[in-house]
Amino acid sequence: MSKKVAVLMGGRSLEREVSLKSGERVTAALSRKGYRVVPLDVTEDLVERLRSEKPDAVYIALHGRFGEDGTVQELLEFLEIPYTGPGVLANFLAWDKAVSKRVFVREGIPTPKWVTLTADAFKQMGAATALGALTAAVGDFPLAVKPAKQGSALGLARVTEAQELAEALLQALSFDDKALVERWIDGVELAVSVLEEDGKPYVLPSVEINAKSGLFDFNAMYTPGETEYYVPARLSPEVSAEVEALAAKVHVALGCRDVSRVDMVVDAEGSPFVLEANTSPGMTDTSLLPMAAEHAGIDFDELVDRLTRAALGRG
Amino acid sequence: MSTARVVFDRWDDRYAARMEQVRSSAVRDLFAAASRSDVISFAGGMPAVATVPLGDVAHSARDAIRHSGAQALQYGSSEGRPDLRVFVSELMAETGCRVQPSDVVLTTGGQQALDLLAKIMIDPGDIVITEGPTYVGALQAFSAYEPEVHCIPMDDDGMRVDLLEEALARIAPRRPKFIYTIPNFQNPAGVTLTPGRRRQLLEIARAHDIPVVEDDPYGRLRFEGGHVKPLRALDDEVIYVSTFSKIFAPGLRLGWITAPRPILAKFVLAKQAADLCGSAFAQVVAEEYFGHTKWRRTLKALTRTYHERRDAMLSALEEHFPEEARWTKPQGGFFVWVEMPRFLDCKALLAEAVDRGVAFVPGDAFFPDGSGRNCMRLNFSFPSPDSIREGVERLANVLEDRLELYRAFMRAGAIPEVREAVASAGGSR
Fold it and tell me: Distance between terminal CA atoms of chain A?
């Protein structure tokens, strides 16, 4: 009898709609590959359903909180159901950019200079009085302001002058209790997806992202036609090799397994900087992982099957 | 309890392109949670139908079938039953509008009037002018026909007609297909267009030869202040839409439109295509209700109820809400519009508010372009005064928490103080 795979999607994060799209495509792919598929939205009766359905594996198509912060992974380990993608710790480390960046620094992985500020630092410690010192600490404008724990660029702002800082921080802090103020590096934006082969990172062709609006925000990510993509990215062979090595290093440093997507920017001098890593990359029709896989000769169904088989192998 | 199993739309790629434009409620998922009994909802827009005496309605229904049963059961004319249209012209005469019964078409709610008007007027890409914010149902109706919606900011006196003038100059030589306004106790802003502004609006519209659509569902729900003549009373080319939903009940799905003859003729064609004719059944019941019950007394009772609830809301806001909040003080209708400082995202707040037992509609639902995120629409027509007081307190607590952060920034002098006029978050485009 064919294996039964439950696909988890939806949930109540701000990326719910994206997750439902990913989940829908994954479900269709798994069906075509001959699995018995149970699509499940994340609702109050999820655990009950999982225990009654007894799937052989769970495909995690959840994005954002609960799907990428370790919550659902912990739960599935407790229920002893194998799942796709990285394990609990990798999810913790990757989800919180303030933490990932510390790991990057420790491992010698280049990442833009930054400062982390929490809501409490503002509320209880008067951190707002020090906003003027941010440029000295991080670098000159433009600066990136973003929530530490959020996906799909929600709450991301590109700040060009001091007056905009407060607003950007307040925006970011509506999504999370922690915000990063980071040097904004203008350059070539890349999404580098990593799979695994024989337990070792297998880096897929980089995708170069050129958002028409100039900002690769939520709208640019999910509205067809808003962004131009180049696969493989238009990089010199040296930079390309460096980017590939860096992506593999990030994947390993965060303890990822099976799949990750590393977002980078290459500056005008050709130096790459790692912005973040994602442990549950989008699988919609404008998403970057499937795009890269396609270029490596791995079609969508094959990609889904590969990750599923890896999970089943852990059962 | 909702089930975890997901069912997909396998016709996802078969729909008409225009459906991409049709707006869905972005807070749909949260509203499922908002209808839990432990959540005080300021998110609705429902009349207090419990105040309508069911005995009266039962009599009307019984008499309707007794006297006009055969007609109630049969197809009627697209324009609707003549007697009810006579009644509508009498209602309108009371407010100062001269309308012939033959210039009235009964519709399936005011909503249908908006939909069919959009259908006969709007080609994809046409410009339509509305207030900013405006009625979400209008945005939804118009969106199916793919217009470019430009909204004009408002203040306590209604639409900023000076900015309307500017907007038209900017748009020129293009000309909007119509200007859509809700002059009385606007949904969602609660404000009323002053007499002076009404005259100015009409002057501008005439000068540019742009039709004006006046949507007036709440005109008879005035708590205080004098009656203000509808735009239609000042200019009989105004297209006027209203409804029986608030003066009788929404369940009948009964409204009306009056417009210049040629426009009305096109409208009737569209209506025929949409539903052949309205519900003769509902129209017959309405005739009996308005002909033979003390409906004005009921309407007075309803208005008193809403007045009481508005007062409960305004005093609760005064008592509990943080000083950074601004809100409108409607002289009638159903809604109060709250504006928070520009950087405070009320939409981001909604999930937390629902968790803490209170729901509202975030302001961006009422703008075509996503602005208004720092605003909220609060409905007072439906919850009881006690619920209103409790709900406002809960909401105030949620806001306080968020404002603590905002104030830390203010104290440090990090935010330029911005005090904008109410509901001015939507700019002209």
Answer: 16
